[in-house]
């Protein structure tokens, strides 16, 4: 399908368009959850298990209940019948027993699991009361790391006899035959550490129950308002229409915010049971132990090559620590790591087993580029080692294996058991283009002299790597377009805004296709009150899915305008043409859009698509490693991707650059560390070290739109995550290159100064 | 306890508990919700307000300590309508995405550039490294700050 053309006079799409959201944010007028309050609201605080694995003997809240300002304490005993469990978004046949109950009843399975909720007059009083609750827990041996978990000696769920809920198999061709025929095989083990997305606004909710109407309203929605509404209605035994999810401004998502969490149910339960609005704002320590973790993955993988450097096959095992329960999308990183590890390379034969195992850590979910960041780290490390082993230049070996446009669509491995996405294929593209762009812009030829050299006490190294980024997750998105009384066009979208500039993007698309100035479009989004059904913002989908639905609505809107105008002009519809907000006849009569306001225009648009888009690209890193301190400086970093069609070059670069810098945090400093008892040792932003302004001053990015996606009329591809995907592999390879004289293998992340220093010292000791 | 101080040029008083932070007082008692809370332990800088000319973490200062002080929040940095040159530069350089860190960035930079309108890129980076932004990667924030210097240099000249 050729991308639809747009009117030459309106060229918002593709431009560097400043955002409509910014005005309110810059003036301090954003409306985030904690900026909203209701008269008579109570505040919630959660008592969380201080024990990683244990049996609850007793919870005594009597002392808390008599404290001034404390209204109620909710424990599992207040929930009638079975404790509801939080829903799966991607179910598979074996995960049922591992669902998370919304509050612990008999057992606690991680440090931070909710065991009680206090409702009080203020957040402070609620928190004070937590300290007065007596919690008696019999400690069980904690299961922390892979070996203990996979041995099944201590079970988290005694009824199901294994700590491994699912093993996904990714298959393509005959991997064993490929290895039997190989000239060269490289095999190694790797580890990516546990992390979290860490949006700057913590989570929170405001729930209100209208007893007269029997309606529940939940403010603070993000990502998946429609799915969560369905889930909440089911758990509350309410009809779906009786639950509204209201989106406000949201301080970042990155995959973690907006999934259904235990607190979501409990806060709503409190509001309904006691008839008061209940507000909960998570504090940062709580956030670190309660929001979805991600990325903890170890692997033992191998690549088979022909002696000319062509990849023949890939084999191995991946082990993902998904924490204590299977959360709504807890399996996504697991199956993604298996399906996407081959990434941008032509790998004809694949067999990977991806083990998801439970442990007494916080349950996992997704974080930007889930599974893809991990897989990219593994394969890029193998590629550089293979280049050395085969004696082939690192650029050359990649050129021989990167996908080209003649192979599109290119099928990836099939992943079973199916979670609905077993098969997928790269939709379009020529991977050598961003690759060569990066080679050129990074001045690779000049810089290759640097490899491993010592300059002013620091070792310099360079590396390049490539990635694919899946986007535009299906199944559908809906919008409604309405002509308002003031002549503006209201656009009601099912997609959610999580800080990515959604209002601007959708306005641009609508304005171009309606041929109206952008300020005539007003976007409303993410709340279930606007539309009967919508989906949300996950898997880099809002631009493609929401944007394509906008096209559909715009077409219908213009048709309705033509119909009204024809009636007013007393001619047939065919005699009317519409452009730039005016309907005209051939004899020069016209009706502007503002004149048909009374006739009313209210149309629905939708877009269905089960086929993901694949943005792809390459990145380059130049590092300087101080062997004395283990500190690594990013001297230069370049990333280029092809996104099919650029809607807004400014916000696109913002996404890519922001993601790349988050990736530096992943590579160097962010780690959720647990001790042997299963206690999270990271309690503040002084322990969980995200990148700061002084850390990584140089990131450059380029975006291409050479290969539009055939899957949608815009030709666009999801592009919110790609920037982070290659960072682990590329930076680790650059460090390996810098330290080549020591022969170190940076296969374990993060590359903290102490780890880098130790690698060097170990290498020195061996000599 | 009653505390009286000036916020954005207007005298205010609030009835606060001794443990209430200045940030909470501004947000919940005075309904100035532009000041955000990202950590409550002094690391993220989202709560930064200007107290007697200095950028201060609103979560590390108690409301009672503001007695008699002059406090400026992001609302106070804003015009009746439109954007200031610093805000305009943020918009132009796409120095904000979710906007949650933005008020703290603006107050921090305003305090810095009012004092040092010629601040170097390195100096700006150094000062801003006390404010966490998870979205932008900081590069555009630095660009915006560098751009906005001209208006502060001009303001100094006008004095
Ligand atoms: S909220 Fe004050 S520094 Fe983070
Ligand atoms: S814009 Fe989101 S944290 Fe800075």
Side-by-side strand order of the widest sheet of chain B: 2-1-5-3-4
Quaternary structure annotation: heterodimer
Q: Which CATH architecture of the largest domain in chain A would you pick? A: 2-Layer Sandwich
Enumerate the spans of chain A where pLDDT stays under 50 for 5 or more consecutive residues. Answer: 1-9
Helix tally of chain B? 6
The main pleated sheet of chain A reads as: 7 strands, mixed
Strand content of the residues of chain A, in percent?
Answer: 25-35%
The CATH architecture category of the largest domain in chain B equals Roll
Tally of domains of chain A: 3
- N/C terminus separation of chain B: 39 Å
Task: Give a written overview of the molecule.
The complex is a heterodimer of chains A (767) and B (159). Chain A has 767 residues and is of the alpha+beta class. Chain A folds into 3 domains: 21-30 and 474-608, Aldehyde oxidase/xanthine dehydrogenase, molybdopterin binding domain (Aldehyde Oxidoreductase, domain 4); 33-140 and 203-281, Aldehyde oxidase/xanthine dehydrogenase, a/b hammerhead (Aldehyde Oxidoreductase, domain 3, Alpha-Beta Complex), CATH 3.90.1170.50; 293-402 and 428-469 and 613-766, Aldehyde Oxidoreductase, domain 4. With 159 residues, chain B is an alpha+beta fold. Chain B has 2 domains: 2-77, Ubiquitin-like (UB roll); 85-156, [2Fe-2S]-binding domain (DNA polymerase, domain 1). Chain B has helices at 22-29, 74-77, 85-93, 102-115, 121-128, 139-158; strands at 2-7, 10-15, 48-51, 54-57, 70-72. In chain B, helix 3 (85-93) runs antiparallel to helix 6 (139-158). Chain B is globular. The mean pLDDT of chain B is 97. Classes of the chains: A alpha+beta (767), B alpha+beta (159). The interface between A and B is large, with 57 and 53 residues. The complex binds FE2/S2 (inorganic) cluster (FES) (2 copies). One FE2/S2 (inorganic) cluster (FES) sits between chains B (96-102, 133-136) and A (200, 252, 499).
């Amino acid at each position: 399908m050729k991308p639809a053309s747009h009117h030459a006079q309106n060229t918002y799409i593709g431009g560097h368009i400043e955002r409509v959201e910014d005005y309110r944010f810059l003036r301090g007028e954003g409306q985030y959850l904690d900026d909203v309050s209701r008269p008579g609201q109570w505040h919630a605080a959660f008592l969380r298990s201080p024990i990683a694995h244990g049996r609850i003997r007793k919870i005594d809240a009597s002392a808390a209940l008599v404290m001034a300002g404390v209204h109620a304490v909710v424990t599992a005993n207040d929930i009638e019948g079975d404790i509801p469990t939080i829903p799966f978004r991607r179910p598979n046949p074996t995960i049922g027993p591992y669902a998370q109950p919304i509050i612990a009843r008999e057992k606690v399975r991680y440090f931070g699991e909710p065991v009680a909720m206090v409702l009080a007059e203020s957040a402070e009083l609620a928190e004070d009361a937590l300290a007065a609750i007596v919690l008696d827990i019999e400690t069980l041996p904690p299961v922390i790391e892979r070996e203990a978990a996979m041995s099944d000696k201590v079970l988290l769920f005694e009824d199901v006899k294994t700590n491994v809920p699912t093993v996904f198999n990714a298959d393509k061709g005959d991997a064993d035959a490929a290895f039997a025929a190989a000239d060269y095989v490289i095999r190694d083990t790797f580890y990516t550490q546990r992390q979290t997305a860490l949006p700057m606004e913590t989570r929170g909710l405001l729930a209100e129950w209208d007893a007269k109407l029997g309606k529940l309203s939940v403010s603070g929605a993000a990502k998946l308002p429609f799915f969560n509404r369905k889930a909440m209605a089911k758990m509350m035994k309410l009809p779906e229409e009786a639950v509204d999810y209201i989106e406000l401004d949201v301080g970042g998502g990155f995959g973690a915010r907006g999934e259904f969490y235990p607190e979501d149910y409990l806060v709503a339960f409190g509001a309904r049971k006691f008839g008061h609005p209940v507000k909960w704002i998570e504090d940062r320590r709580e956030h670190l132990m309660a929001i979805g973790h991600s990325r903890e993955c170890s692997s033992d993988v191998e690549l088979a090559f022909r002696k000319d450097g062509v990849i023949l096959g890939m084999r191995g095992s991946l082990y993902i620590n998904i924490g204590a329960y299977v959360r709504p999308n807890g399996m996504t990183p697991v199956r993604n790591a298996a399906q996407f590890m081959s990434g941008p390379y032509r790998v004809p034969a694949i067999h990977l087993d991806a083990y998801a195992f439970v442990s007494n850590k916080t349950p996992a979910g997704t974080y930007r580029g889930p599974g893809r960041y991990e897989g990219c780290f593994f394969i890029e490390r193998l590629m550089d080692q293979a280049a050395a082993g085969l004696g082939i230049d690192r650029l050359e070996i990649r050129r021989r294996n990167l996908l080209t446009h003649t192979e599109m669509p290119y099928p990836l491995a099939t992943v079973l058991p199916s979670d609905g996405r077993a098969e997928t294929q790269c939709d379009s593209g020529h991977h050598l283009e961003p690759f060569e762009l990066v080679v050129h812009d990074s001045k690779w030829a000049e810089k290759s002299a640097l490899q491993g050299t010592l300059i002013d006490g620091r070792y310099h190294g360079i590396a390049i790597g490539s990635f694919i980024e899946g986007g535009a997750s299906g199944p559908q998105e809906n919008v409604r377009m309405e002509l308002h009384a003031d002549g503006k066009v209201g656009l009601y979208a099912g997609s959610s805004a999580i800080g990515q500039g959604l209002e601007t993007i959708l306005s641009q698309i609508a304005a171009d296709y309606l041929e109206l100035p952008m300020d005539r479009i007003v976007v409303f989004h993410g709340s279930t009150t606007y539309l009967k059904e919508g989906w949300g913002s996950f898997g880099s989908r809002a631009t493609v899915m929401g944007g394509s639905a906008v096209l559909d609505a715009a077409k219908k809107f213009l048709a309705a305008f033509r119909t009204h105008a024809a009636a007013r002009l007393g001619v047939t519809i065919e005699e009317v043409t519409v452009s730039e907000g005016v309907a005209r006849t051939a004899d020069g009569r016209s009706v502007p859009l503002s004149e048909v306001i009374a006739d009313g225009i209210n149309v629905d648009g939708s877009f269905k698509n089960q086929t993901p888009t694949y943005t792809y690209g390459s990145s380059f890193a130049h590092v300087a490693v101080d062997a004395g301190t283990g500190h690594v400086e990013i001297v230069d970093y370049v990333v280029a991707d092809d996104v099919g069609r650029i809607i807004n070059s400014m916000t696109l670069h913002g996404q890519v650059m922001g993601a790349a810098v988050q990736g530096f945090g992943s590579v160097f400093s962010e780690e959720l560390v647990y001790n042997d008892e299963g206690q999270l040792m990271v309690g503040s932003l002084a322990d969980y070290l995200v990148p700061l302004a002084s850390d990584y001053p140089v990131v450059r990015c380029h975006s291409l739109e050479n290969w539009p996606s055939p899957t949608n009329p815009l030709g666009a591809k999801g592009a919110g995550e790609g920037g982070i995907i290659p960072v682990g592999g590329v930076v680790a390879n650059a460090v390996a290159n810098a330290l080549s004289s020591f022969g170190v293998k940076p296969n374990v992340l993060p590359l903290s100064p102490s780890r880098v220093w130790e690698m060097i010292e170990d290498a020195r000791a061996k000599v | 306890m009653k505390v009286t101080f000036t916020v954005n040029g207007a005298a205010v008083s609030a009835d606060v508990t001794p443990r209430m932070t200045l940030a909470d007082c501004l947000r919940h008692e005075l309904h100035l919700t532009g000041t955000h809370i990202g950590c409550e332990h002094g690391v993220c800088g989202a709560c930064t307000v200007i107290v007697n000319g200095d950028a201060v973490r609103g979560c590390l200062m108690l409301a009672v300590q503001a007695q008699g002080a002059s406090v400026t929040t992001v609302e106070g940095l804003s015009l009746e309508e439109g954007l200031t040159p610093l805000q305009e530069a943020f918009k132009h350089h796409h120095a904000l995405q979710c906007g949650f860190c933005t008020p703290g960035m603006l107050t921090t930079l305003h305090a810095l550039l009012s004092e040092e309108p010629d601040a170097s890129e390195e100096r700006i980076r150094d000062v801003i490294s006390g404010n966490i932004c998870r979205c932008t990667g900081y590069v555009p924030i630095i660009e915006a700050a560098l751009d906005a210097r001209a208006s502060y240099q001009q303001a100094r000249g006008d004095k």
